[in-house]
Amino acid sequence: MSGFAEEGKRIYGDTIPGHQADKRLLVIKQPIGVTAAITPWNFPAAMITRKAGPALAAGCTMVLKPASQTPFSALALAELANRAGIPAGVFNVVTGSAGAVGGELTSNPLVRKLSFTGSDRDWPPADGAVRERHQKSLPGAGRQRAVYRL
């Protein structure tokens, strides 16, 4: 997580020369809002921190749905985030069935970005929900370990 925190210090805007000598374009980088992540059972702490670190460093909030087999890893990381001073409501863990929680995370318009790692067998609604929202998706190679980022 410290690596992502260090990168957060280097998020700058840009000033780009315009097509006219007296004009400038200003690029402002800002948080996009609520991000969500759905993680698999294997390497739970590593998968969670790889998804939450960049989102938190960019100033976004995170809603995490861990695998049903490893909810305690996610809850322990949420407790550590709390102890580290992450404000309440910034890093959130939701446990429950993949269909119910995953369906909400993919269909809720408040969720601006989604990262999903797992196979289509683990969570079939992903493709349809992504298509319904007309968002870009980046499935993993062979779609056996797909990663969706909206």
UniProtKB/TrEMBL annotation:
Residue ranges of every copy of the Aldehyde dehydrogenase domain listed in the record: 4-120
A Pfam family assignment: Aldedh
Keywords: Oxidoreductase
Keyword Acyltransferase tagged: no
Domain of life: Bacteria
GO cellular component terms, A-Z: cytosol
InterPro entries, sorted: Ald_DH/histidinol_DH, Ald_DH_N, Aldehyde_DH_dom, Aldehyde_DH_Superfamily
SUPFAM superfamilies: ALDH-like
UniProt EC number: 1.2.1.79
GO molecular function terms noted in the UniProt entry: succinate-semialdehyde dehydrogenase (NAD+) activity; succinate-semialdehyde dehydrogenase (NADP+) activity
GO biological process: gamma-aminobutyric acid catabolic process
Similarity section: Belongs to the aldehyde dehydrogenase family.
The name this protein goes by in its record: Succinate-semialdehyde dehydrogenase
Organism name: Klebsiella variicola
Gene behind this protein: gabD_2
